[in-house]
Amino acid sequence: MADCVSASPADLERLQHTFDLILPENLKLLLLEVGGLSGVYGERVVWAPSEMEDQNRIMRQTPEFASLYMPFDGLFFIGDLGNGDLIGLRVLRGNVGGWNVFRWEHETDSRLNVQLDLKGYIRAAVTGGFPA
User: Fold this and answer.
1) If you ran DSSP here, which 8-state letter would residue 97 be given?
2) Please, what sign has the CA dihedral across residues 112, 121, 117, 96?
3) In this predicted structure, what is the pLDDT of residue 29?
4) Which of 44, 61, 70, 114 is surrounded by the fewest CB atoms within 10 Å?
5) What are 13-62's pLDDT values in tens digits?
6) Residue 89: how many CB atoms within 10 A of its CB?
7) Which residues are 20's β-sheet partners?
8) What CA–CA distance (Å, rounded) separates 130 from 120?
9) pLDDT digits (tens, 9 = 90+) for 57-111
10) Are 101 and 115 in contact (CB under 8 A)?
11) pLDDT at 73
12) CA-angle at 91, arms to 46 and 131, nearest 5°
């Protein structure tokens, strides 16, 4: 379910500039259309761009995280499961791949490939078919 105001092109440009990356077209189109999505259990399947910026900044810049977790540079977080685990897309050479959706488990620092593409992840998450 859409849960926030649609993103503007300027929002997406700022997000890409802040993290020096290129978002996949399908993610940009989704954000321009609905801004963000919630799942059937209230999990934030896809954050609004401002939340993506805030959460990715926190994950990369919190000093304590550097001693607890592997670096997060290879993931760009786009949502959460409501239990502390985050959902991210792989970052490769400044491009965010619209495929290979990963679940970062906060208790183990595991990065699990849970879907082959963004479309499959969103479909499963908004219908309750994605594991929490």
Assistant:
1) E
2) negative
3) 93
4) 61
5) 999 999 999 998 999 999 999 999 888 778 899 999 999 999 999 999 99
6) 26
7) none
8) 10
9) 999 999 999 999 999 988 999 999 989 999 999 887 767 766 789 999 999 999 9
10) yes
11) 87
12) 40
Give me the residue label for tokens 């321009």: 32
CA dihedral sign of residues 7, 9, 14, 15 = positive
CA–CA dist 61, 98 (Å, integer): 24
Q: Tokens 């020096």 map to which residue?
A: 20
Amino acid at 5: V
Two structure tokens written together for 8: 């503007």
What is d(CA 130, CA 124) in angstroms, rounded to the nearest whole number?
5
Both structure tokens of 9:
């092109």
Q: Tell me the C-alpha distance between 99 and 108, whole Å.
A: 23
Residue type, 71: P
